[in-house]
Design goal:
Layout (H helix, E strand, L loop, with lengths): L1 E6 L8 H14 L4 E9 L1 H12 L7 E9 L2 E9 H10 L4 H16 L7 H19 L1
Parallel strand pairs: 1-2, 2-4
Antiparallel strand pairs: 3-4
Helix pairs in contact: 3-4, 4-5
């Protein structure tokens, strides 16, 4: 899996190579092949514009996951992550910024692995998977 990180808005993200290897681990464990993954860290304003333009949603969110293609070699995808929303979430959820940014990254990858979050049951499973991978990553 070729993972590239782009910073429209700066954020502290250490151990980037470790993170990239762990994302490969997640996709392997979830039986999903991702060929190319771009992760773009941006502002609330930037992500709101994407949300309005591509999804016709007029609200802020912490992440938008786009699966661009899916062929025999794997998926090509982009994760757009609002650093502003992630940091607000870290306060709301009484978490660290480091933990929350990783939770959101894992959340986007789990979407690419087929997990949903629209129903209560789907969201509960998604949260469980996020916690499972956060514990493995940080321990």
């Amino acid at each position: 899996m070729n993972t590239s990180l782009f910073f429209q808005k700066k954020t502290s993200l250490t151990n980037r190579n470790t993170l990239k290897r762990f994302l490969k681990y997640i996709t392997k464990k979830e039986n999903t092949i991702i060929k190319d993954l771009n992760i773009i860290f941006c502002s609330d304003e930037y992500l709101l514009n994407i949300n309005r333009s591509y999804l016709n949603h007029d609200y802020n969110t912490d992440i938008i996951t786009f699966e661009i293609s899916n062929d025999k070699e794997g998926k090509t995808a982009e994760l757009y992550i609002s650093v502003d929303s992630v940091f607000k979430n870290s306060i709301d959820y009484q978490s660290t910024k480091k933990n929350e940014i990783h939770r959101v990254i894992f959340h986007g990858v789990l979407h690419l692995c087929g997990y949903k979050d629209k129903s209560k049951a789907d969201l509960a499973l998604m949260r469980s998977k996020e916690e499972e991978y956060l514990k493995k990553y940080f321990n």
